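A reminder from the course coordinator: this example appears on the midterm review sheet, so study it carefully.

Given structure:
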């Protein structure tokens, strides 16, 4: 009878059972071992995020640069164009273009000195002083502006855009400039040049100040002319190495026209 009073549902191991234990087995929500394929995908996503962040930083940098520098900045007293060798010329060509710009500045300074020298030639009593002064006044704005537009700016654009058309424009007009420099170096009276012949004439007259000014001017014509001749050869070699040709230049002219001369990038 005692067996009938026993609880049939009682566990024989009741002493070992915790009533608060969850009978259902517990499992971790995330697997402890990530498959190799999943790990590769996570790594790829992280790599793409880094690339997108780098691109965003580069875009922001360019936008900030355009905001600050993407406006006309030259000449400084009346900006008409954007001119920045550091920002627009490839790093390997920056030194050469900078030297060409410095030679253009030497030319501009020589034109100013030439005009001042011609004033003193006139004051020294030269028979051709009036014609020299008149011609030197014309040279300063005429040669100063055209030299920038016809040989400096084309070679600046040539190295910036690496297009054959600009190289040929430079070769033609810088060639004329080299001839003009030799002409001015000689210093024939009445031609507007305070070059060699006028320099000797001023010393013979005893006009020391005029002679010194003419000497400095003569050195200026020689310095910028020889510098131009030296870089002319270097640029010709670079032009050949890049595979530029006259037919390529004609194709660029037909495709872009004169508009390309006034645009950047």
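Designed residues:
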């Amino acid at each position: 009878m005692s067996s009938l009073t026993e609880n049939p549902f009682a566990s024989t191991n009741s002493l070992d059972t915790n009533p608060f234990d969850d009978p259902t087995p517990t499992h971790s929500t995330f697997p402890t071992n990530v498959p190799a394929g999943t790990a590769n995908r996570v790594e790829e996503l992280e790599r793409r995020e880094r690339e997108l962040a780098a691109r965003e930083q580069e875009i922001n940098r360019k936008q900030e640069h355009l905001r600050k520098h993407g406006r006309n900045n030259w000449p400084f007293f009346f900006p008409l164009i954007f001119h920045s060798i550091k920002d627009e010329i490839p790093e390997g060509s920056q030194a050469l273009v900078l030297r060409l710009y410095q030679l253009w500045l030497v030319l501009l300074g020589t034109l100013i000195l030439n005009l001042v020298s011609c004033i003193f030639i006139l004051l020294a009593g030269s028979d051709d002083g009036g014609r020299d002064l008149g011609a030197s006044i014309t040279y300063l704005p005429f040669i100063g502006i055209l030299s920038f537009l016809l040989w400096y700016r084309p070679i600046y654009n040539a190295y910036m855009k690496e297009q054959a058309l600009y190289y040929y424009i430079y070769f033609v007009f810088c060639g004329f400039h080299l001839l003009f420099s030799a002409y001015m170096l000689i210093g024939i009276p009445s031609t507007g040049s305070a070059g060699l012949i006028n320099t000797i004439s001023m010393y013979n007259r005893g006009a020391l100040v005029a002679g010194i000014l003419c000497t400095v001017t003569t050195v200026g014509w020689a310095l910028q002319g020889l510098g131009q001749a030296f870089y002319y050869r270097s640029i010709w070699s670079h032009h050949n190495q890049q595979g530029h040709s006259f037919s390529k230049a004609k194709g660029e002219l037909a495709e872009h026209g004169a508009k390309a001369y006034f645009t950047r990038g």
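The chain has two domains: 33-68, 93-262. The mean pLDDT is 85.
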